[in-house]
Amino acid sequence: MPKIGIIGGSGVYGVFEPKETIKVHTPYGRPSAPVEIGEVEGVEVAFIPRHGKNHEFPPHEVPYRANIWALHELGVERVIGITAVGSLREEYKPGDIVITDQFIDFTKKREYTFYNGPRVAHISMADPFCPEMRKIFYETAKELNFEVHEKGTYVCIEGPRFSTRAESAMFRQFAHIIGMTLVPEVVLARELGMCYVNIATITDYDVWADKPVDAQEVLRVMKENNYKVQEILKKGIPRIPEERKCGCADVLKNAFV
Ligand SMILES: CSC[C@H]1O[C@H](OP(=O)(O)O)[C@H](O)[C@@H]1O
Ligand SMILES: Nc1ncnc2[nH]cnc12
């Protein structure tokens, strides 16, 4: 049973040669694609491409609940979310990696929870990301000599459109990076007591710099930097301890009404 799951974002539709592909049915429908099981440097890992194998799910239609449920059902305890993001700051440059530490939710109409009643839960989201995995992946990226930011606030917009210049100027006041998929993915993982880490690759300067971002730019820059994500995963995954000492599962202790 894989204890580690990877959700690949734009430009990341596979990370290993799968030994097995499992079609999982969940109470929330099917995941974005059958779950691939394989190995990263000898560690068993599950993989789902967030937008589907052929990028057929836009960010507001990704079956987030089915993806997280499927990984949980397969025994995954730790989720690594790979994302492409825009930069809202000069010093966060295209090609840099960010190990996100906070998010701000500007999405509008998604399925945000597994607890729609009669079971009611209010999960703490003060520190949304797994401290153990954040440390491992930051140190790994640093050792690999990649430009990496230890922290960054990710503002998640509804999409699928990009922001206006006015929106981007507002987001720049309080966030470092911008994307369309972190919420509700991280929230749902925490609702099931799973660890979640976000490894974000910066692909553009959104729309506040001279040339406004477009989708082709995101995919091109992601392709150019894909090797960084692969190397970080290869070197970082074997460093993840078997037993969790991070306390991510403890958020469930006092969450239920
Ligand atoms: C392809 S451009 C916009 C698209 O890219 C990002 O996807 P992901 O977070 O899955 O890497 C962004 O959030 C949008 O969904
Ligand atoms: N500028 C941007 N806005 C929203 N999502 C993105 N994904 C990559 N770049 C983005």
Automatic annotation (TrEMBL):
Its EC number is 2.4.2.28. The gene is mtnP. Phosphate binds at residues 10, 50-51, 83-84, 181. Pathway: Amino-acid biosynthesis; L-methionine biosynthesis via salvage pathway; S-methyl-5-thio-alpha-D-ribose 1-phosphate from S-methyl-5'-thioadenosine (phosphorylase route): step 1/1. Substrate binds at residues 180, 204-206. Homohexamer. Dimer of a homotrimer. This is S-methyl-5'-thioadenosine phosphorylase. It is an enzyme of class 2 (transferase). It comes from Thermococcus paralvinellae. One of its GO terms (cellular component) is cytosol.
